[in-house]
């Protein structure tokens, strides 16, 4: 059993469990999943102010999720998996942050390794997208993480710190105070491999140290740093027991409503003290 470290996590940092559905679930399936997730959390009397829950569906399901969340006054937050660095214009296939804001999105993931690798997104592009998110009042879930070769060379902290320095370039202190950072080691994504809790803590702590270097005041203490990579109900409590881990960005396990609800309810599986 993992030890409940809530007492050591500054109270301002409300844990966030965010489900990145990736390219799964059409708008009808999305409606079913959100309903089941909501019912399960309601049955468990989930306190959304203690552990925030968000879903990140494909663009095509956002309107359905919005209708459900607003119509039934659900406590769930939602957001998109990407956005354009531009606001409008001749950018075929791109989606503006302005459209996402109109759909009531709270979050947008930026710089996921599947976009960095599959779509050639550089840190420069990621940085422009982070700024676009703020332009439209969206909260970025800024993703970072190292590949296996970098980890094998023991350069994971150096790699992640360099990514984030570039991704946050020009981001103001006020903006940075609301960013969510997701550390997702690429070798642990969709592989069943999970970084050990100590591995996750090492990099998440280094991220907080970088934030303290970049921004004065209490920014570093307030920013939520998530871990992502094969998170499941069975391993989430041990990861959440780490002092600098404030939630999880969940892929595969988030499209099973019972499993994702159990992840959100990780505190049911920890001992007090
Ligand atoms: O990429 C991830 C979340 O963004 C992690 O995916 P998995 O949970 O499927 O490993």
UniProtKB/TrEMBL annotation:
CDD domains: TIM. Keywords: Cytoplasm, Gluconeogenesis, Glycolysis, Isomerase. Its EC number is 5.3.1.1. The keyword GTP-binding does not apply. Substrate binds at residues 20-22, 190, 230, 251-252. The active site is at residues 112, 184. Pfam families: TIM (PF00121). It is found in: Cytoplasm. Belongs to the triosephosphate isomerase family. This is Triosephosphate isomerase. The gene is tpiA.
């Amino acid at each position: 059993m993992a030890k409940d470290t809530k007492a050591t996590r500054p109270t301002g940092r409300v844990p966030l469990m965010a489900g990145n559905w990736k390219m799964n679930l059409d708008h009808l399936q999305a409606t079913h999943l959100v309903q089941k997730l909501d019912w399960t959390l309601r049955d468990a009397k989930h306190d959304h102010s203690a552990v925030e829950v968000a879903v990140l569906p494909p663009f095509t399901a956002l309107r359905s999720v919005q209708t459900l969340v607003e119509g039934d006054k659900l406590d769930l937050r939602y957001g998109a998996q990407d956005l354009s660095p531009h606001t409008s214009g001749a950018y075929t296939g791109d989606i503006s942050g302005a459209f996402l804001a109109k759909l009531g999105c709270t979050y947008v993931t930026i710089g996921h390794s599947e976009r960095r690798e599959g779509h050639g997104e550089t840190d420069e592009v990621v940085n422009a997208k982070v700024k676009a998110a703020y332009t439209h009042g969206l909260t970025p879930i800024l993703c970072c993480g190292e590949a296996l070769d970098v980890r094998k060379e023991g350069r994971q902290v150096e790699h992640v710190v360099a990514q984030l320095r570039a991704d946050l370039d020009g981001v103001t202190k006020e903006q940075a105070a609301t960013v969510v950072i997701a550390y997702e080691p690429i070798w642990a994504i969709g592989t069943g491999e999970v970084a050990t809790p100590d591995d996750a803590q090492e990099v998440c702590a280094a991220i907080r140290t970088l934030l303290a270097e970049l921004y004065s005041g209490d920014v570093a203490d307030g920013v939520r740093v998530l871990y992502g990579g094969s998170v499941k109900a069975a391993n989430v409590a041990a990861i959440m027991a780490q002092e600098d881990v404030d939630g999880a960005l969940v892929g595969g396990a988030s499209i099973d409503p019972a499993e994702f609800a159990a992840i959100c309810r990780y505190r049911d599986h920890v001992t007090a003290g």
